[in-house]
């Protein structure tokens, strides 16, 4: 992937929790899917997954919608395990990753490809009508949040399009179960077929 290894941008400089093989998987899957239409991700954080997806979309002159309220998930809040002081806005006393996200897009030269939507899935998806070639869900891991992400976007995946869900842990001892729960929900719906998982990245194709 040309952009990951360019001299003026290093994907490893972007904060995030995406493994290298998952990032490369996102890029390759989005490269195929974005030939059919626009893509959308839920949970941009500082833009690591966004870069992989958007670079693929850019190659096809396509658009990536990036949905995130940029106030962080439960684990990013003050005093929690994954809290990052650099992303805390002391003035409003809230976590805010949007400025860092915009900086990532600028450095990666992807501002003409990504449409940031600063809102929750429930708000952003309320009047959504655009068919999507790929939806990547990597938002909050509370069950209510994951369900909202799934219900807001899964129905907009076009036939032949992809639904990707990050942090799939079949064994509860390995990690939280909400992403795996919506992954199983998608399979049980009969609308999706299972493709090979990449590390913890669940991959489903709309029938």
Automatic annotation (TrEMBL):
- Annotated SUPFAM superfamilies: S-adenosyl-L-methionine-dependent methyltransferases
Q: What is the protein named?
A: Class I SAM-dependent methyltransferase
Superkingdom of origin:
Bacteria
EC numbers on record: 2.1.1.-
Q: Which UniProt keywords are present, listed alphabetically?
A: Methyltransferase, Transferase
Presence of keyword Nucleotide-binding: no
Example GO BP:
methylation
Is Membrane there in the keyword field? Answer: no
Identify the Pfam families for this entry.
Answer: Methyltransf_24
Q: A single Gene Ontology molecular function, please?
A: methyltransferase activity
Q: What class of enzyme is it?
A: transferase
